[in-house]
Specification:
single chain, about 170 residues, alpha/beta, GMP Synthetase, Chain A, domain 3, 2 domains, three-stranded mixed beta sheet, 6 helices
Length: about 170
C-alpha cells in the first residue's frame, strides 16, 4: 500500500514506535485502523487477487456500528474490487462500506455519506471571527432514509475534513 494510517513497520510488527503510539494516544489513529491496515498488507503480500493494493492509499477508517467508512486516495475507488469489499465485510462483520476520497472539501464527503440521496445545496458561511463554516441542505423527504442523523453527519464531516458543517433539511 502506498499510504497507511501508521508506519508500515509498526503495523506489520504490532509494536508502535513513539510517533505512532503518540498518534494513537491522541486519537489521530485507532486500533481498528491499525488492524485493518495489517490485514490489508497481508492480503497484498499473500494473495494474487489483491496485488492491486500496492497502488492504493489508505488514510483512515471509521468503524461505525454496522458500517465502515474508508478514506482512500483519489481515484482508488476504481482499483478497489468488490471481492475486497466482500472480504472486509465478512472479516469485520459489517453490512456496508462507504468509500470516501481523501479531501478537505466537504461536498464530496457529504455526497458520499448521503448517497444515493442528493445534496440540495452547500453554502460557505463566513463568521465575524474569520472562521468558515458550511451549511448543507438536504431534502426533507430523505431525512428518514439516510443512514445518519444530522448530528452524526456533522460529526463525521468534522472528523473527515476538519470543517464545521450544519446539516439542515428543506
Amino acid at each position: 500500500m502506498k499510504i497507511l494510517p501508521a508506519d508500515k513497520t509498526c503495523i506489520k510488527s504490532g509494536f508502535l514506535c513513539n510517533s505512532c503510539q503518540a498518534r494513537l494516544d491522541a486519537g489521530e489513529i485507532t486500533e481498528f485502523e491499525i488492524d485493518l491496515a495489517k490485514d490489508l498488507l497481508e492480503l497484498e503480500e499473500d494473495n494474487e487477487s489483491f496485488v492491486f493494493l500496492k497502488d492504493v492509499s489508505f488514510y483512515k477508517a471509521i468503524d461505525y456500528e454496522d458500517l465502515i467508512i474508508l478514506v482512500i486516495g483519489k481515484r482508488d475507488k476504481l482499483r478497489i474490487t468488490s471481492e475486497l469489499l466482500d472480504w472486509i465485510k465478512e472479516t469485520y462483520e459489517v453490512d456496508e462500506i462507504i468509500l470516501v476520497d481523501k479531501t478537505n472539501k466537504p461536498r464530496p464527503i457529504v455526497e458520499a455519506l448521503i448517497n444515493p440521496y442528493k445534496l440540495v445545496s452547500l453554502n460557505e458561511i463566513f463568521l465575524a471571527t474569520g472562521d468558515v463554516q458550511f451549511r448543507a441542505v438536504l431534502w426533507e423527504d430523505d431525512r428518514e432514509k439516510l443512514l445518519f442523523t444530522n448530528e452524526e453527519l456533522e460529526q463525521l464531516i468534522l472528523e473527515l475534513t476538519g470543517n464545521v458543517i450544519r446539516v439542515e433539511f428543506e
